[in-house]
Write a structure and sequence with these properties.
Blueprint lengths: L26 H11 L42 H7 L2 H4 L4 E11 L8 E11 L4 E6 L10 E7 L21 E4 L2 E8 L1 H9 L14 H7 L8 H10 L8 H7 L3 E8 L1 E8 L4 E6 L12 E6 L30 E3 L2 E8 L1 H10 L31 H9 L10 H6 L3 E8 L10 E7 L4 E6 L10 E7 L2 E2 L5 E2 L10 E4 L2 E8 L1 H10 L2
Antiparallel strand pairs: 1-2, 1-6, 2-3, 3-4, 5-6, 7-8, 7-12, 8-9, 9-10, 11-12, 13-14, 13-20, 14-15, 15-16, 17-18, 19-20
GO biological process, one term: mitotic spindle organization
Subcellular location: Cell projection, Cilium; Cytoplasm, Cytoskeleton
GO cellular component, one term: mitotic spindle
């Protein structure tokens, strides 16, 4: 009997999948294998059909026919009963997937934290061609390459029957072996349950697998509980914290009680009524022989009792209040005694009005640094800014001179003048200069334009800075000194002002009428 099997090179779909070699097989045996193993896929009743996505019919010649999908040659308004009757299995079961959740236990060696790891998997069974794909959800810092666990393919049963796994092999709370991995199924989605109810094989109830050490100790996120007492304690410890009453802050802002206290040396204690905080400052005097250390205690709330308690055990009502500071009684601050010697007039009036207590005045006043009148200011050597150089005379560590910010912002204007040397030297009498006066900081800049074949380098002639007018009691130059036609002396050079630009003329007309 002649075989109807096509004799094409390499086209042998009936070969055994687990066969290690590929020797030639007679046509009779191929026909027998074809009848046994190449059977069509079994069809199952599906719970509900997936809706067909109908593409847009705009621009088509005949809108009564579809342009894509499997039923591309069928009319759009036909009934679905006749279609399903003659549909092949790969069309009827298209986009119908069963989803199971499973896990298997994997041993972990050479680890002091865990002995095994529970690896959870998601199994997809495609009813279209009875293929299987497996994915593993990714876990943060798991140390295991996760994601695609098994590519989509048909999987043989592990019992040696040389048949593929079918939907009846999946049962919750039972094991299934896939390529040597024994996977315990513990859950499935709602569509999968409806599918098995339709074929008369309902699935068992789902259960939660026992977590491993990695999931309980590493992946379990700690949800901190809000501790308002601890938060208030830490905020006050850092010098912050909420004011108990906004009215207290508004009524007592910038009101400070000042006490003179003594503990081995004189100190000044400030009590801020706005937030009930206290600071202690040293009274430094010249040639006292002590290293000046301005702050004895930084500004903070002062507890009545000092002890090494657990964090959060010191509450707001345990801080010192103004009524706790009394004359004649020592004030204990962090186990150190401070004798109160007196207060200032504002503190005395506050105690008399608030508590009807006559708090005595007294204490050593803070010594103010006297202005030294014997400082001899040397003449400026012309290097740098004079105001900047004076900082080294008044202070050992000079501070930069303060600039008039509003003048700098409001006067971003430059006045330009044309000038030339007022001299009889033949090489200099024809030299022309551009003098720029900056109104924001009263500085000057002199620039010499380029003259070809003059032999004189062009460019900047005088650096931009403030210069003094020797003809006006060494006062700094002002716009009044720049009058066209007059002669001015800048840094020892005599210039004759010839002209100015249009903006400068307009500015002088508006400001010097």
């Amino acid at each position: 009997m002649a075989s109807a099997f096509p004799k094409l090179p390499g086209f042998v779909p009936t070969q055994e999948l687990d066969k290690p070699n590929f020797r030639k097989v007679s046509s009779n045996k191929q026909d027998k294998n074809r009848e046994i193993k190449q059977l069509p896929n079994k069809e199952y009743p599906v719970p509900h059909k997936q809706p067909i996505q109908i593409p847009s019919q705009t621009g088509m010649f005949n809108p009564d026919y579809l342009s894509t999908t499997h039923a591309m040659h069928l009319p759009k308004n036909t009934t679905n009963d006749s279609e399903e009757l003659y549909q092949p299995s790969w069309v009827k079961m298209d986009r119908h997937v069963l989803r199971f959740s499973g896990f298997f236990k994997e041993a972990v060696v050479e680890s002091a934290l865990e002995n095994y790891r529970i690896r959870k998997l998601t199994i997809f069974y495609y009813l279209e061609d009875h293929s299987i794909s497996i994915t593993e959800p990714k876990q943060e810092n798991s140390g295991v390459p996760q994601g695609a666990f098994l590519k989509r393919q048909k999987v043989l049963r592990a019992d040696g029957s040389k048949t593929f796994i079918i939907p009846e092999d999946f049962k919750i709370n039972q094991d299934i072996e896939i390529f040597g991995k024994t996977i315990r199924l513990y859950d499935c989605d709602q569509y999968t349950r409806e599918f098995y109810d339709g074929i008369g094989q309902p699935q068992e109830q789902s259960f939660t697998p026992q977590p491993d050490f990695f999931e309980t100790k590493t992946m379990t996120k700690y949800i901190p509980q809000k501790d308002t007492v601890m938060k208030d304690y830490l905020e006050h410890k850092l010098g912050g914290g909420k004011v108990t009453s906004q009215k207290q802050f508004l009524e007592n802002d910038r009101k400070v009680l000042k006490f003179y206290v003594f503990s081995d040396i004189e100190y000044v204690l400030h009590y801020y009524l706005a937030d009930d905080t206290i600071e202690i400052k040293e009274i430094n005097s010249a040639n006292s022989g002590r290293v000046p250390f301005p702050m004895m205690l930084r500004r903070q709330k002062l507890p009545r009792k000092f002890s090494l308690n657990q964090p959060g055990q010191t509450y707001a009502e345990d801080f010192i209040r103004p009524q706790d500071i009394q004359f004649g009684q020592p004030l204990i601050i962090y186990n150190r005694k401070f004798a109160i010697q007196g207060c200032d007039p504002f503190t005395r009036n506050y105690y008399y009005e608030k508590f009807n207590v006559d708090f005595p005045l007294g204490g050593q006043e803070e010594l103010q640094m006297e202005q030294r009148s014997n400082i001899i200011i040397p003449p400026h050597n012309g290097i740098g800014d004079e105001q900047d150089s004076l900082g080294y005379i008044y202070r050992l560590q000079p501070k930069p001179p303060k600039k008039d910010f509003f003048k700098w912002v409001d006067n971003q204007v430059n006045l330009r003048f044309l000038a030339m040397f007022n001299t009889t030297k033949p090489e200099d009498k024809d030299r022309v200069f551009v003098i720029t006066y900056f109104l924001n900081d009263d500085s000057l800049l002199i620039y010499e334009p380029t003259v070809r074949n003059s032999g004189i380098p062009d460019g900047k002639f005088l650096e931009k800075r403030k210069y003094k007018n020797a003809q006006n009691n060494n006062e700094f130059f002002s716009p009044k000194d720049f009058i066209v036609g007059n002669e001015i002396m800048i840094n020892g050079w005599k210039f004759q002002l010839l002209d100015c630009d249009e903006f400068t003329k307009k500015w002088f007309a508006e400001n010097f009428k």
